[in-house]
Amino acid sequence: MKNKKQPLSVLLSNNWLFHDKKKYNLIEENSINLLIELGYNESSSKKAGKLIKKLYEFADKIQKIDLNTYEKMNSLCDKIDHYLKRNKNAKNEIKWWKAVRDKNYFLATYFIFLDQLSKLGWKNAFLSIKATKQLYRAGIEHDKKNWQAVQNHCQEYWKIIKRAKVDKFIEF
User: Fold this and answer.
1) Residues 14, 20, 24: CA angle, nearest 5 degrees
2) Is residue 2 part of a domain?
3) What is the domain count for the chain?
4) How far does Cα 71 stand from its chain's mean position?
5) Closest to 171 (Cα-Cα) out of 20, 24, 30
6) Can you count the helices (H) and strands (E) in the chain?
7) Which long-range contacts link 39-42 to residues 24+ away (Cβ below 8 Å)?
């Protein structure tokens, strides 16, 4: 797989666009490129990309995220973390996905913040708030199908993440 050298903001927003269009193979390819751009090796990125595709497919097949579904999605995220040699960090990611699906945006914002805080660490709590704000705004624009605005918010998001200087970061 050849990395197409797109900006991180485009790579992240592409997954949301491809998800809306149910183009799961493009999600896989794009996720691999995103992970490679984030510094993961190609082999691990390919394995994780397949699981990210599977996670998006699974999320679309379900009507409600109950405990059993949550555990299955969490298990997929744990496998992604294993392939990328990261600490397990799936719990908050899936919780905010569930809150968005339930249209509980206040709770979703809380879980997005917890997810960003778990990735960036307490020393970067203020940056976690800023990152949450950008993801939230990108999500609002995503609902409006305003892809340029989604990319702009994702671009601001990655600037914040780079300032945090964390290792083994992932967002998909």
Assistant:
1) 70
2) no
3) 1
4) 18
5) 30
6) 8, 0
7) 40/84, 42/1
Give, in degrees to the nearest 5, the angle at Cα 114 between 25 and 65: 50
Please answer whether residues 4 and 36 qualify as being in contact, where contact means their C-beta atoms are separated by less than 8 angstroms.
Answer: no
For residue 35, the surrounding DSSP H or E stretch is helix 24-37
Task: Please check whether residue 147 is in contact with residue 166, taking contact to mean a CB–CB distance below 8 angstroms.
Answer: no
Q: What is the phi/psi pair of residue 118, to 5°?
A: -65, -25
Retrieve residue 155's tokens: 């671009």
**Chain centroid, CA 96 distance in Å:** 11
Q: What is the pLDDT of residues 10-29, one digit of tens each?
A: 888 888 889 888 999 999 99
Q: Where is 93: in which H helix or E strand? A: helix 90-101
Residue 1 lies in a domain: no
How many beta carbons lie within 10 A of that of residue 64, not counting itself?
Answer: 8
Q: Token match 């409600």: residue?
A: 64
At 21, give phi and psi (nearest 5°).
-90, 0
Residue span of the structural domain in which 67 resides = 8-164
- Rounded to 5 degrees, φ, ψ at 102 are -80, 0
Angle, vertex CA 132, rays to CA 96 and CA 24, nearest 5: 55
Q: Assess if residue 123 is contained within a domain.
A: yes
pLDDT digits (tens, 9 = 90+) for 35-73: 998 889 999 999 999 999 998 888 887 767 777 887 888
